[in-house]
Amino acid sequence: MLVGEVVLVTGGGRGIGRIIAEALAAEGAAVAVLARSAAEIESVASDIENRGGTALPVVCDVTEPTRVADAIDAVNRRLGPLTLAVNNAGTCRAVGPLVEVDPNLWWREVETHVRGAALVSHFALRSMIQRHRGRIVNIYGNLGDRAGRYSSAYAVARPHCSGSPNRRPSSATMPGSPCSRCTPASSTPR
User: Fold this and answer.
1) Which of 66, 130, 154, 172 has the highest CB neighbour count under 10 A?
2) Cβ neighbour number for residue 175 with a 10 Å cutoff
3) What is each CA distance from 145 to 26, 131, 154, in whole angstroms?
4) Are strands 54-59 and 30-35 parallel, antiparallel or unpaired?
């Protein structure tokens, strides 16, 4: 059971993020659901609360430092001290031969995966280090391992996320607070 735990799930409005948010809430955690789409995260939070859980929808673009800092502050104020951050936000829309893919879309995908995970980890670690308690989990789809020839942005970005908190400088680590990589199965319900 996760009663007393406060969890933040990025990209929590649909797909794997939604499944993670709902599963953690079902185990008793209070869950902050972050994404850019208000309608999606409000739906997830409502479903969690209808099942007796505690949820907080927070609209946030994880590539914007101020928005991430504000989101984590809101979680700490409204749900309690953050104990788990799940970096799940990401896309795989820049698909096709590199010469045909919009370079701005390609970069936005890399930025969401890499910068988003780094910013969430950065701001989450601040409060976790102060309390000597917390964990960060990076969700890493196996498409990055397969390096699909038409998904170069994803293949470039996701390996950088797979262990980024583990590679942080030792000055940012704390005893008893491991960071993990999770690779979900290639197909998920919903």
Assistant:
1) 154
2) 6
3) 31, 35, 10
4) parallel
DSSP tally for the chain: helices H, then strands E? 6, 6
pLDDT averaged over every residue in the chain = 84
- For residue 45 the two structure tokens come to 């939070």
pTM: 0.84
- The stretches in the chain having pLDDT less than 70 are 141-149, 154, 158-190
Domains (range + CATH), the chain? 6-182 (3.40.50.720)
- What DSSP state is assigned to residue 165? G
For the stretch 160-190, pLDDT in tens is 555 544 444 333 444 444 455 555 544 344 3
Sheet-wide strand order for 54-59: 54-59, 30-35, 6-10, 84-87, 135-139, 179-182
pLDDT in tens, 100-123: 999 999 999 999 999 999 999 999
Which residues partner with 8 through β-bridges? Answer: 32, 85
Active site residue 154: yes
Residues sharing a CB contact under 8 Å with residue 17, sequence separation 6 or more, in sequence order: 9, 10, 11, 33, 35, 86, 88, 89, 139
What amino acid is encoded at 86 in this protein?
V
